[in-house]
Design brief:
Chain lengths: 217, 472
């Protein structure tokens, strides 16, 4: 798994609440059987003025000049700022894949939808929850200053602004550990194989109907 | 000691190991898979040289990409016209064949939407943990199961280890007492719940639906409600087991039989929240006050009773909410203060994992019987949730009633709920849809979705605009 330690980069706005995963990566692009290449279609319906197609070369498509990610000042952004309930809707992991492939390493919002939040950690994309007032402050500072950068340090769990102000955020110990070290969590779980087998043996005795019902014909 | 909630009991029964850091390993009994969220997971297994831990825990079917016209369906995978969709469906077939996973392939009579086939075949049972790479997996919670959606990395994790790394959620009880009025359906109940608590109201919670309204509800209705728990932010929604649950499960293909049946039933009877259980949050709603609902905006919480007026952003004080309303009105092409019943519909979609079961088709047919789809409606389609639902509806003659009224009768699949196949809205078109999400572009580029019950969708098809089904 991709690791995350420290990131400093331009912050860009997605200034609305309830950003859903259909918006982050529309369904026509979910037909891909790959994990990569979704960045060019991130926020496709907002970013371009035409309807996108899978496997399309997007370089010649008409851009929506009113969409902030198309502004020159936000090019190369690594941190996305947004509002409440970011990532709601579908469980598609294509959403964090698209954000990551575009170049974002972190999303800061007052709250996240559970499945998106969980999926992000599996892909080295750090979702950071800060109080709505702090997020509002970051939005205002970002709008006021071109080239506004934020620094994120996972080890110290802090977000720092260009003026040196720092805000701390919470993160689960297990997720932090996996992300800092880029650990494969399947490998970690398989270290518990004996515990899983022993649970399974006991369960088979108590509830045998849970096993073996589905068999090839 | 305080009593346990249904969720507490399901969690405890599946706990393999608690780690010192607060995370836990939870054992997964049933894993349902489809073509969209699994190719990268199978690829991950292959790269790491891993095999599924327990193949008999997995059931597969293609649903998101499959065409729903009988012409395009006739020659199976080969006949899928969209080459990218075809590769994805073919990839699922290949992966299931390679790993020995049972799959109901595209033209198998048992094929259907993942969340419809799980319960109807008995693959998903009370007391199970059920996962699927799809956020509407909570549908199975209607059986008294702990069911939720997962991402592709977790699909791979569950296939490889039979476990999920999880953290226990908090307990939320949504209690709806009283009696529903005539013409008010489970879909209206869940839409009213989302309107009340908001799309993030259930974030971090496992949501139990309790109260008289759910005790009186069929399993199909409970599935409609649990299905949309995620639209209120909760990964898992569930209803306690009662006699209705047990009667529903009995005799299904993969359900236990003989002495195992008796042992299972004894076990399932425990799957209720104890009287002295404590919930972290309780929301109470009076069921008798719920009216038929119609969503007007681009988030499932933007929903109102059919006799209401489209909201005015000028009356909203919160700036983020205000701009949300303005953006939604603009996208939907609606004016503040407009009557919901003045919104015309261009297309009608009756289907999806929310509302494509036999009761939903019956409800639509009841409204359609002896009436005609309005001439202004471009297309009104009914897409059954599975081959079994389709066969049952045809045996009851519902397909005839619907086609005589001008509805199209399609082959099973997810269809226009998310428009990954050819079924989609045109730019700017309004749709009365029984699906679960009204996000921008969800049902097609520029499409405008209004979420309603099957009866309300059929009524809108007949009238050409939204109408209170109770007035028909």
């Amino acid at each position: 798994m991709k690791s995350f330690t420290q990131v400093t980069g331009i912050a860009a706005p997605m200034d609305r609440a309830n950003v859903d995963t259909d918006m982050i990566i529309p369904k026509n692009f979910l037909k891909s059987i790959k994990r990569t290449g979704f960045g060019k279609n991130l926020f496709d319906e907002l970013r371009y003025l035409d309807e996108g197609l899978p496997d399309q070369d997007c370089s010649g498509r008409p851009l929506n000049e009113d969409f902030p990610l198309n502004f020159p000042r936000y090019q190369g952004a690594k941190v996305l700022l947004s509002r409440e309930n970011f990532g709601c809707g579908s469980s598609r992991e294509h959403a964090p894949w698209a954000l990551d492939d575009y170049g974002f390493r972190a999303v800061i919002a007052p709250s996240f939808a559970d499945i998106f939040f969980n999926n992000s950690f599996k892909n080295g994309l750090l979702p950071i929850i800060l109080d709505a007032e702090i997020v509002e402050q970051l939005f205002q500072e970002m709008y006021a200053r071109e080239g506004y950068e934020l620094s994120i340090d996972l080890a110290t769990q802090s977000v720092s602004t260009p003026s040196g102000e720092s805000f701390s955020f919470e993160v689960d110990e297990f997720r932090k550990h996996c992300l800092l070290n880029g650990l494969d969590d399947i490998g970690l779980t398989l270290q518990e194989a004996d515990a899983i087998r022993s649970y399974e043996a006991q369960r088979k005795q108590q509830a045998p109907w849970l096993f073996g019902a589905i068999q090839p014909e | 000691m305080a009593g346990k909630t249904l969720y507490d009991k399901l969690w405890d029964a599946h706990l393999v190991k608690e780690r010192d850091d607060g995370s836990a390993l939870i054992y997964i009994d049933r894993h349902i898979i489809h073509e969209v969220t699994t190719p990268q997971a199978f690829e991950g297994l292959r790269i790491a040289g891993r095999k599924p831990w327990r193949v008999d825990s997995i059931l597969a079917t293609p649903d998101h990409n499959v065409p729903t016209t009988s012409n395009e369906r006739a020659s199976g995978v080969e006949g899928i016209e969209d080459p990218v969709s075809k590769i994805q469906v073919q990839t699922l077939d290949n992966n299931c064949d390679e790993f020995g996973i049972v799959e109901f392939k595209i033209n198998d009579a048992r094929q259907g939407i993942v969340h419809v086939i799980g319960p109807e075949t008995g693959a998903c049972l009370p007391g199970m943990t059920v996962v699927c790479g799809d956020s509407h997996t909570a549908t199975n919670g209607a059986l008294g199961a702990l069911a939720h959606g997962i991402g592709t990395s977790e699909v791979e994790h569950v296939m490889a280890t039979q476990c999920l790394v999880a953290k226990k959620m908090k307990n939320l009880l949504i209690k709806v007492d009283g009696q529903l009025g005539e013409g008010v359906t489970p879909k209206d109940v869940v839409l009213a719940i989302i309107a009340e608590i908001g799309t993030a109201g259930g974030t971090g919670f496992a949501m139990e639906f309790g109260g008289q309204v759910f005790r009186d509800m069929s399993i199909e209705g409970r599935m409609t409600v649990c299905n949309m728990a995620i639209e209120a932010g909760a990964r898992a929604g569930m209803v306690a087991v009662d006699q209705t649950t047990i009667d529903y499960v009995k005799g299904r293909t993969y359900a236990p039989t003989d002495d195992q049946w008796d042992a299972a039933v004894a076990n399932w009877r425990e799957l209720v929240s104890d009287d002295d259980a404590t919930f972290d949050k309780v929301v109470e709603i009076d069921g008798s006050s719920i009216k038929p609902q119609v969503s007007w905006g681009t988030s499932p919480e933007m929903v109102l009773p059919v006799d209401a007026l489209v909201p005015d952003p000028a009356k909203e004080a919160d700036p983020v909410k205000k701009s949300g309303i303005e953006r939604a009105l603009n996208y939907m092409g609606l004016a503040a203060g407009q009557k919901i019943t003045d919104i015309s519909v261009d297309r009608v979609f009756i289907g999806s994992c929310t509302n494509s079961r036999i009761e939903d088709v019956r409800a639509a047919a009841e409204v359609a019987k002896g009436r005609q789809v309005a001439g202004s409606v471009i297309e009104a389609m009914v897409v059954p949730g599975s081959g079994q639902v389709k066969a049952q509806a045809e045996a009851e003659g519902l397909d005839k009633i619907l086609t005589e009224a001008g509805f199209q009768w399609r082959e099973p699949g997810c269809s226009m709920c998310l428009a990954m196949n050819a079924d989609k809205l045109g730019n700017g078109e309004h749709c009365a849809s029984t699906s679960n999400r009204n996000f921008e572009g969800r049902q097609g580029y520029g499409g405008r979705t209004h979420l309603v019950s099957p009866a309300m969708a059929a009524a809108a098809a007949i009238a050409g605009h939204f109408v209170d089904v109770r007035d028909l």
